[in-house]
Amino acid sequence: MGEFKHFINGAFVSSASGKTFENRSPVDLSLIGMVHEGGEAEIDAAVSAARGALDGEWGSMATAKRSELLHAVAAGINRRFDEFLDAEIADTGKPRSLASHIDIPRGAANFSVFADAVKGEATESFHLDTPDGTGALNYAIRVPKGVIGVISPWNLPLLLMTWKVGPALACGNTVVVKPSEETPATTTLLGEVMNEVGIPAGVFNVVHGFGSNSAGEFLTRHPGVDAITFTGETRTGEAIMREAAVGVRDVSFELGGKNPALIFADCDLDKAIEGTMRSVFANCGQVCLGTERVYVERPIFDEFVARLKAAAEKLKLGAPDDDSVNLGPLISKEHQEKVLSYYEKAKIEGAIVITGGGVPDMPGEQANGAWVEPTIWTGLGENSAIVREEIFGPCCHIQPFDAEDEVVRLANETPYGLACAIWTENLSRAHRVASKMEAGIIWVNSWFLRDLRTPFGGSKQSGIGREGGVHSLEFYTELRNVCIKL
Ligand code: NAD
Ligand code: 6OD
User: Residue 122's pLDDT is what?
Assistant: First the structure.
C-alpha cells in the first residue's frame, strides 16, 4: 500500500496536521494507499519554496540549460515508464493498453516538446526615428510570470498536469501543483524524477488535498501565486476565477464540454463509426473532448444507430491488465452515482435506450467497483438534460437531422464550446461547417489528433485562453517593453 506525501522544496513531507485520506481503486474499491491532506501550512510552504527557487539558480539559469534539464525529465519518465504506468492504472483503473499509448508517453512528450519550443521563443523589435536623428531601439523581452498554481483533474492525470507544468517550467517559472484527490500517484512520482535529474529544489512542488476549503482553494487564494492554470469543471473554474480576481492574477482554464459529432450522409461510414466509438467511449467517456451528442443525417440514421449499437455491445469491460479489455470503470463511486443519475433521468425524460443504461455484472470483488454500461439513447429533444448537460461517462444521445444549417444550429446550441467532430467526404462542406462551429477544436474525419504546437482551449463556458506551442509560451511569460535611445 502506498503513502502519498507532499513534495515541497525537493523533499517528501507529511501534513503538519497529520491528516490523511484514503485512495481506493475504482476497479474494486480496494485500498491503494493513504494520501497526506494538505492545508494552508503546506500551501504556504510550497509557495515559499517556489518563490525561493525563482530567486536562486533556476531564476538565472540559461534557457539552453533549462531545456536540457526538461529533456532529462522526459527521459526520466520514460526510464521509469512502467512505474508511471502502474501508478496511473492503480489510481484510475483505465486499461493498460490505453495508458501505455496515451497517458504516459504524452506525460514525457509534454516536457520534451516545450523544452524545444522555448528555444525558439522570439519577440518583436522596432527601430524608431527620433527628432534628434539618433533614433531608438524598441523591443520586447519575455520574463517568467513567477509562481504558477497548477490545479489538475483525474481523467488524464499525468497528461493534463504535465501539459501545464512542462511549458511553465520551460519558460522559467516555478510551480505548485494540486493534483486531483482521486489521482495522487503519478504527480508524486514525478517529484522523484525531478530530484533524480537535478531540477533544483523548490521548482516543482506538490500539495495533495481536496478543492473547496482545502489545498485547491488555499492555493488559488495565496497571494504569492502569480497565475493559475486549471483543468476541470466549469463551476470550479468560476470559483477559481473569483479567487484569482483578488490581486488581478492571470488565469488559463480548460473546462467542461458537451461536444457534438456531425455525421453527414456523404461520410465514409466505416470511419465515422470507428471514430465515433473512440470519441464516445475512450477512457470510459471521461475525456473532456469526447462526444456526448451525435447528430446523424436522416438517410443513414437507422444504419448508423444499428452499427454503433452493435459496436458498443462488443466493448469488453474489465480490469486494466486484461489485454482484451476496452473499458475500465469510472473514476469513483461518486462519479458512478452521478452518471447513473443521468441514466435514470434519460428514462424519466422518455429516451429510447438503444443499449446499456445500467450497471454491468462484474465478477468477484469487481462488483464493488464504479462500473457503468456503455449506453446509447435516441428520441430526446433539445431541452433534455441528457442533451444539454455534461455527463462525463460512456454514453451518447443520437438525433437525426435533415439539413446542414439545422445541424450547425443544433450543435452550437450549448453553453459549452470545447470540441466538435465532423464526418463528411465533401471537402467544401468540411471547410464550410468547420468555420461555423463554436468550438475551440474542430476535427474533420478524425478525433483527438493534434500537433502540440497548435492552440488548444475552449470557447464559451469551456475555457479561457489557449495553450500549446507559442500560446503556452505566451501564457507562462510576461512581456516587458524596452526602449533604448541610441
Ligand atoms: P473538478 O473541477 O471537480 O476538479 C479539478 C481539480 O480542481 C481537482 O484537483 C479539485 O480538487 C480541484 N478543485 C475543486 N474545487 C476547487 C476549488 N473550489 N478551488 C480550487 N480547486 C478546486 O474536475 P474533475 O471532476 O477533476 O474533472 C472532470 C471535469 O474536468 C469535467 O468537467 C471535464 O470536462 C473537465 N476537463 C476539462 C478538460 C479540458 O481540457 N477542457 C480536460 C479534462 C477535464
Ligand atoms: O491533449 C491535450 O493536451 C489535452 N489538454 C487534452 C484534454 C483532454 C480532456 O480530457
Answer: 86
Please give the backbone phi and psi of residue 231, each rounded to the nearest 5 degrees, phi first.
-130, 125
The amino acid sitting at 287 is V
Grid coordinates representing 254 are 480548460
Both 17 and 50 in a single domain? yes
Within this chain, do residues 216 and 331 fall inside the same structural domain, yes or no? no
Q: Ligand 2, atom 9: nearest CA belongs to which residue?
A: 288
The number of distinct structural domains making up the chain is 2
238 and 181 inside one domain: yes
Q: Are strands 395-401 and 174-178 parallel, antiparallel or unpaired?
A: unpaired
In a domain? residue 245: yes
Instruction: Collect all residues with Cβ–Cβ distance below 8 Å to 329 and sequence separation of at least 6.
Output: 26, 27, 93, 284, 317, 336, 369, 370, 371
456 lies in a domain?
no
For residue 74, give its domain range.
2-255+462-485
Q: How many Å lie between the centroid of ligand 1 and the Cα of residue 464?
A: 14
Catalytic: which of 288, 395, 396, 420? 288
Determine, yes or no, domain membership for 457: no
The model's pTM: 0.97
Beta bridge partners of 417: 459
| Residue 284 appears among annotated catalytic residues | no
Residue reference for cell 489521482: 183
Q: Whose CA is nearest to atom 40 of ligand 1?
A: 254
Ligand nearest to the CA of 256: 1
* Closest ligand 2 atom number to CA of residue 283: 10
User: Which of 243, 254, 373, 467 is labelled catalytic?
Assistant: 254
| 30-73: pLDDT as tens digits | 999 999 999 999 999 999 999 999 999 999 999 999 999 999 99
Question: Residue 209's pLDDT is what?
Answer: 98
Residues in contact with ligand 1 by the CB-under-6-Å rule are: 151-155, 160, 178, 180-181, 210-212, 216-217, 220, 231-233, 236, 239-240, 254-257, 288, 390, 392, 418, 458, 462-463
CA distance 205 to 348: 47
Are 359 and 445 found together in one domain?
yes
Residue 137 falls within a domain, yes or no?
yes
Instruction: Name the residue with the closest Cα to ligand 1, atom 28.
Output: 232
With a 6 Å cutoff on the Cβ, whether 289 touches ligand 2 is yes
pLDDT score, position 121: 86
CATH at 29: 3.40.605.10
Q: Say whether 181 is catalytic.
A: no
pLDDT below 50 — which residues of the chain? none
CB of 66 within 8 A of CB of 57?
A: no
What's the CA gap between 412 and 229, in Å, rounded? 26
Q: Are residues 125 and 32 part of one domain?
A: yes
CA distance 410 to 407: 5
Instruction: Indicate the SS3 state at residue 344.
Output: helix
Check if 156 has its Cβ closer than 6 Å to any atom of ligand 2.
yes
